[in-house]
Amino acid sequence: MNHYLDKSETQKYSKTISSTKQTQVSNLQNHIQQILSDSYHTFLQGSYANSTAISDINDVDIVAVRKNVYCSNHSPVIPNIINPRDFPWEEIYRDIIEQLKNQNLYNWTITVKEKCITVETSLFKADIVPVVQVHEDVLQDPVSIKTSSGNKLTYPRNHKNNGISKHSATDKNYKPMIRIFKNWVKAKLDKDIISSHKIESLIHAVDTSLFSNDHLASFILISDSIIKKLQERNSIATIILSVCGNEDITSNWNHGNRNAFLNELIQARNLATQSWEAKSTTEASKYWNQIFN
Which CATH architecture has domain 19-156? Predict the structure, then answer.
């Protein structure tokens, strides 16, 4: 069965950042790597790294791995290393901040937060996330991040690689669908309701067969799948794995926020269904755009 929604209507919400912005982000990350020198290995994580950023996003996440510093309570290699260096987080943060202050290419402000150091320019806000190694190979996940409850393992490169695999398996429809859902969330929900990480994980958990080049159909089918998973989660303790595959994303998702997301998604799915069933291009467009307005 065909529908009347023109492809350009879904493309409005699936487009990614411009090549100009991609270059600006790459230049920013390279500059920060130069500032921090060989003591750190930096790389992009999050939406920019995963090619799931919506077109108007200006928040950049950059991981800064302190080389040859190991997480004492997670690293299996520490017993095999002579005089392992287990730096206090305060020293790592202080070191990064001092080096960020001693540059003149960007006019930025520096703010220290629990898990990151934020630099803000007229173009971007970049969260620099200090981490320490777990394995001897600085390029290997996991790495360890500071949290209020202690050191936590994180898997940013596994996230990226698993996303690449899903994107390929869905005939390159996975990432455009994430951007469509992110635009919907931005339009309809408070940012505290659901994180970008959870959005990507919910869509990653959807069966590959539900993705297609018809993004209206995909939106309906993916929404149906997520709705069923979340409704099941409310009745029995089912698990929805992160993109990395190492954690249940619902375990630390506030029940009220989870239900707020679920209820809004049901409304969005219903509007998408009305768009599918519409009898004209105008009517189909009207229902589709109501999802995002």
Answer: 2-Layer Sandwich (3.30)
